[in-house]
Design goal:
It is a peripheral membrane protein. By secondary structure, the chain is α/β, with parallel strands linked by helices. The protein has a six-stranded mixed β-sheet with strand order 11-6-1-2-3-19, with helices on both faces. The protein has a five-stranded mixed β-sheet with strand order 14-13-12-17-18, with helices on both faces. Strands 7-10-8-9 form a four-stranded antiparallel β-sheet. Helix 6 crosses helix 7, helix 6 runs antiparallel to helix 8 and helix 8 runs parallel beside helix 10.
């Protein structure tokens, strides 16, 4: 299941279709990637993206990125993809899909090969990457990304491209992002039922980082936290490469359920209360400001109850602190708190909550800013917020996927006993 995506050709315009399957929303975008001149902003991007088809709808049959009901998931995806196809006037055959499910995780593998004092050639780079790949493959997990972080020549680290250099020993560090194979297979199954092929899988935290980070952040070290509906994902970038990815199965929808349980209101009402009045930072007037609530099962002619806004804050704040503390503990355990420098970028739908950057600053003890997707033209107004960062990142991904290591596919022979031309000849002889 390694990426099969061809990088976009420099100087050529191409069409890309992406499908963001979340726990609360599903979104499909068809965009035209046109070559752009190298600018000061967003230096890594070779193309500008212009959206020509957009479809958006509530998710069904998916929980925490895992397919829970194949019929419902198929129907929800068909509706959204159909909407985008009608807007663009095209029929899709294959899509780029994001992966949040399957206990997403990342490890760094290292390998070295000897050069005997010769120049580094493409074959040597390929040999060392293959050595890493053979160490990282496991039967129960599928590799989604294999990103070379940096090369070393005779112990000298920090080499970007060793081609043409001379040395005795070539080493490489590769960040490998993987997920459980069965979760991927179910995702593939649903898309096949919708008559769609998976062009490539993109890890959600990687896509969110590509969309929201500015150039110097990725160089100096930064962590991007994507607060989704039922999962929160983290990616750490350093020296321009992603070096770590992780996912926690708690998200914004858990806050909604907390409110619904504690206040005994319906889930739809709890979502409305969270969006309109929710905050994780207590304010001065919170005890005096009253919010009307309609308890579950109350008839329409009953007067709604009232609660102070402070009660809502007291329900929401512990859950947000739990998510941020879990992220901090995971990153400290893996040593990534030092790699990410002094900066966190918050994105995803739940990141737009009032007071979240202040709470995050206190718990993570780092500089925090809110991130929004950048550099995508033609998006409708609804899709310009942080909730659509993953989708925007998947439009950037074809421009950077050339950096990844992909296992070569066996090339078809044209001649010989079992070659393509020989088989055509046999068919002609036997048929006529």
């Amino acid at each position: 299941m390694t990426s099969r995506l061809r990088p976009v050709q420099p100087g050529k315009t191409t069409l890309v279709a992406v499908l963001d399957i979340g726990s609360t929303k599903i979104c499909c975008v068809i965009a035209r990637l046109a070559p752009r001149p190298e600018g000061r902003a967003l230096r890594g991007r070779t193309h500008s993206a212009e959206v020509i088809g957009f479809g958006y709808g509530p998710a069904a049959g998916v929980k925490s990125g895992v397919v829970t009901d194949i019929e419902k998931a198929e129907q929800a995806i068909r509706n959204v993809v159909g909407m985008a196809e009608r807007a663009a006037g095209l029929t899709l055959e294959s899509v780029l899909v994001n992966v949040t499910a399957g206990r997403l995780g990342s490890e760094t593998f290292s390998a070295a090969v000897s050069l005997d004092g010769q120049e580094v050639e493409k074959a040597d780079i390929f040999r060392v990457l293959k050595a890493v790949n053979s160490r990282s493959v496991r039967p129960e997990r599928s590799i989604i990304h294999a990103l070379p972080i940096g090369y070393a020549l005779d112990g000298q680290k920090g080499i970007r491209d060793p081609k043409g250099m001379v040395g005795e020993k070539l080493g490489v560090d590769v960040a490998v992002v993987s997920a459980e194979t069965l979760a991927m297979r179910n995702l593939e199954l649903v898309l096949h039922r919708c008559h769609l092929q998976i062009e490539a899988l993109v890890a959600t935290p990687y896509a969110s980082g590509l969309a929201t980070l500015v150039d110097d952040e990725a160089q100096l070290g930064v962590a991007c936290v994507d607060f989704g509906g039922a999962t929160t994902t983290v990616s750490v970038f350093n020296d321009g490469h992603m070096v770590y990815a992780d996912a926690i199965a708690i998200g914004g929808h858990h806050l909604t359920l907390d409110i619904a349980r504690q206040l005994s209101v319906s889930v739809a009402d709890a979502e409305r209360l969270k969006t309109l009045h929710g905050s994780v930072l207590p304010g001065q007037a919170d005890e005096r400001e009253m919010i009307p609530i309609q308890p579950v099962g109350a008839s329409h002619d009953e007067a709604p109850g009232q609660i102070p806004r402070a009660v809502l804050t007291r329900i929401m704040r512990p859950r947000m602190e739990e998510i941020l503390t879990a992220i901090r503990d995971r990153m400290q355990a893996t040593g990534m708190m030092d790699v990410c420098g002094r900066r966190f970028v918050l994105t995803g739908g739940a990141s737009e909550m009032t007071g979240l950057p202040e709470v995050a600053r206190r718990i993570l003890a780092r500089n925090v800013r809110n991130g929004r997707p950048m550099g995508i033209a033609g998006l409708p107004e609804i899709a310009k917020g942080a909730a659509f960062a993953t989708m925007a990142g998947m439009l950037v991904y074809p421009q950077v996927c050339a950096q990844e290591y992909v296992e070569p596919r066996g090339s078809r022979k044209l001649t010989g006993t079992d070659g393509y031309i020989a088989r055509v000849g046999n068919w002609l002889r036997t048929s006529f």
